[in-house]
Amino acid sequence: MPSSVQPTPYTNGHTTNGLTNGHHHAEHEERARDVGILAMEVYFPNNFVDQAELERFDGVSAGKYTIGLGQERMGFCTDREDIVSLCLTAVERLMRRTGTSYADIGRLDVGTETLIDKSKSVKTNLMRLFEESGNNDVEGVDNLNACYGGTAGLFNSLDWMESSAWDGRLALVVAGDIAVYASGNARCTGGAGAVAMLIGPHAPLVFDQGVRSSFMQHAYDFYKPDMASEYPTVDGQLSIRCYMEALDRCYAKYRQKFAAKIFKNTTTPVNLDCLDFMVFHSPFTKLVQKSLSRLILSDFLAHPEPDYTGKHAGLEKYRGVKLNTTFADKDLEKLLLKLSHDAFSSKTDASLMVARNVGNMYTASLYGGLVSLISSHTVEELSKRRVGLFSYGSGVAASLFSAHFVPSDRLTQLVESFRDLRQRLDERAKTAPEEFDAILKSKESTHHSAPFTPAAPVEAVPRDAYYLESIDGMHRRQYLVKRDS
Question: How many angstroms separate the CA atoms of 474 and 470, rounded?
């Protein structure tokens, strides 16, 4: 954080006195108000592979990954980092930067689909950070459903804070994953990273109440049935269709709830203009661009008097079409991308910085998009603006919800904390595709091995990042943090 902006210790959002020994604060608001994100931290591995170089290594046509999928670089982990080390790093950096005491945390939710143990949660691993504070009174565990777990954890923490169970303390939500695929055409859509969020009242980014809309159904679009492998089983075309259908359904419900809750009536039209920004879960960024264009189609079909000479030009023949019949229509897709160009540029494109340069962080993907959006705007550009967020996890679980930025010193701190995001992305170490491939093959051969000592050098681990030191014969993992020598 720049020295001109001093961090404010976060306690319970309304008093300067922090909690001690994990005890509940004797005087706190009976109901939390303006609950949202107080602060965030994103962590991604120090290693990446260039997607253009990966195209040549894989022997595919130039532009397949970079233009066709919209990806530039892909982050990945060596055997020195795993899901626990990623989350430890994100949480500790957030707490240190904000000056927050671990005693002030009353709930910790983790969202991940990267399993290193079928019983012990990542959350319990994170509790080692709380030992010095003496705070063991921390609710929450891991949330699992593909890329949706981070959002499930966020909703759990929000609901806790807005309920009678709230004891006046803050919540932590951590979303993190390592996305890896078997050798082939899906490997380029991997990534890795974690996002930690400090949740509390009187936040600079407040979640809108009563408008979040969800869509759940059964589908085998992406799943991990092989417990001995990190790699998923994927039906790519079905997964994209499920994503689009979930978006259509969530957006339709969101519009209804927004009209009733925000506009206080059901007759005022709700459309994309009601959202200043729109952030999506990003398996690859080209899908996000197509997703934004779907909202244009939904607005058109719901509009009582379409503008065929302006923003709806060319859509005449699609009047009355059912959304679920349009997924394979390439002519419509091309038209919608053209019609949504300006909206994509102003509302969504800035949210894709991390996605383009790190790849799919699964549960952390949506929140990496939010970090990217914040890092790309000034306080003035964000103040009093509303952002829509679409979360998707295969299987299927999806939600569309929104939040609004509140002008305050805390918003200034939130914005300033990500001013170096582009620099951090550019300072990572590039790895040749041949070495990247060899690292993944080595990880395949040692997956769930015990005892195990990682081969990757500790010197490559960033400063103030946690890393895996060893796994003993009982599969117990030991972690260290890299400090200045």
Answer: 11
Q: What is the per-residue DSSP string for 28-59?
A: --SS--S-EEEEEEEE--SEEEEHHHHHHHHT
Phi and psi angles of residue 441, each rounded to the nearest 5 degrees, phi first: -65, -40
Non-local (6+) Cβ contacts of 138 within 8 A are 22, 105, 106, 107, 108, 127, 130
**Coil, strand or helix: which one is 343?**
helix
Q: Which phi and psi angles does 235 have, rounded to 5°?
A: -105, 95
Q: How far apart are CA 366 and CA 369, in angstroms?
A: 5
**Alpha-carbon torsion angle 456, 462, 467, 470, nearest 10:** 30
> pLDDT tens digit string along 203-254?
999 999 999 999 999 999 999 999 888 999 999 999 999 999 999 999 999 9
- Identify the CA nearest to 399 among candidates 236, 212, 217, 234: 212
Burial of residue 7 (CB within 10 Å: 0-12, 13-18, 19+) is middle
Name which of 170, 199, 223, 178 is nearest 78 in CA terms. 178
Query: Who contacts 435 (Cβ-Cβ below 8 Å, separation ≥6)?
Result: none
Kindly state the tokens that stand for 103: 């005693």
In terms of Cα–Cα distance, which of 69, 398, 85 is closest to 244?
398
- Model confidence at 107, pLDDT cuts 50, 70, 90, reads very high
Strand ranges inside 147-266, DSSP E: 170-179, 191-200, 205-207, 213-216, 222-223, 233-234
> What residues act catalytically?
113, 147, 281
Whether the Cβ atoms of residue 250 and residue 280 lie closer than 8 Å to each other: no
